Amino acid sequence: MTTHKYKDIEYSLKKSKRKTSSIYIERDGSISVLVPSELQQDEIENILERKRFRIYSHLAEWEDANTSRVYREFVSGEGFFYLGRTYKLEIVEKQESALKLKNGQFLLRRKDLSNAKELFINFYKEKGRKKINERVDYWKKLLNVEPNDIKIMELQNRWGSCSEKRNVNFHWKTIMAPLTILDYIVAHELTHLIHPNHSEAFWNELDKVMPDYLHRKSWLNIHGAGMDL
Ligand SMILES: [Zn+2]
């Protein structure tokens, strides 16, 4: 990967065997350009010129999501993510369970307010376990891999991890993302069962089952920081 500058656009350039070009935003807000190896510099610059507006609107989205990050408050009207949608929280006086998602709203029992964060984490873990297992079943067949164990847990700065023992872990926050993005995270981790690194071979393998993975990866880099409690 090498750093280049075209007018006001600074970017990292990566050449690959792919036939198409992609521009995407990294987690730190930098721009990466992936192009077929035979593409000339002026052709690359043409692409950048054509995509200028897209690049800048993506960068603006990234800045919105990453510099004005607001922590959620457990008050009525606050929005919480679940599978890519936002649901408003409503504090209710009486309810049989402490927290539930019903009729497009999160309903939290007032006497459990002091445990709100923990209750949300448990909600995400529980829903995540079911959904992620379902998506693992789908993607493992396409990738022809067999994970040993799947866990939903708190992971530091990562969406997922994969161990030498073929145990695959996912952060409970992943269930906040739209399904297409959750699928990217699942397929990414399962591909590590074939290549335990981020080599070109790894990305090529993922590309075979998910040709639009770069768009999904870019979405996660832009919006990932906002997916938190
Ligand atoms: Zn990875």
UniProtKB/TrEMBL annotation:
Domain of life: Bacteria
Pfam families, alphabetized: YgjP-like
InterPro entries: UTP_pyrophosphatase-like, YgjP-like_metallopeptidase
Coiled-coil segments on the chain, per record: none
Any one GO molecular-function label of the UniProt entry: hydrolase activity
Hydrolase keyword on record: yes
YgjP-like metallopeptidase domain: residues covered: 20-222
Entry keyword set: Hydrolase
Xref: PANTHER family: UNCHARACTERIZED PROTEIN YGJP, UTP PYROPHOSPHATASE
Protein name stated in the entry: Metal-dependent hydrolase
Organism (species): Aequorivita vladivostokensis
